[in-house]
# Entry
Amino acid sequence: MAVNSDRTRLFVTVPNPSGAAKGQILVYNIDPKDRPTNSTSNANNWHRQIGKVDAGLGVEGIAATPDPLKMVFTNRNEDAKGFGLLEITSNNPTGITAKTTKNTLNLVWLLILEYS
# Structure
């Protein structure tokens, strides 16, 4: 679980919800500006889920970046492939859209250089 850098979105990793083939990252609106002024209306979905992004089976860790529209995440089943990047493409309190990409680290070469 992590909050983005401008503290408006909460991201929660769900490794394998209900036996699903892929894990997910759930996104919640925690922007104080979207807090309802009365208890009968919550048009901006404050403290509600506003997004769900497929992230591969085994997604676990998630962390903020300096860019509030980007988060990095890890996936225990895909460690050899590097880490994931979640990028929000449409940031709306009534629903977000996002994409994920894999980013390799090439740690093997770093270790070889370190110990040679």
Notes: Residues 2-115 form one domain. The helical segments are 107-115. The chain has one domain: 2-115.
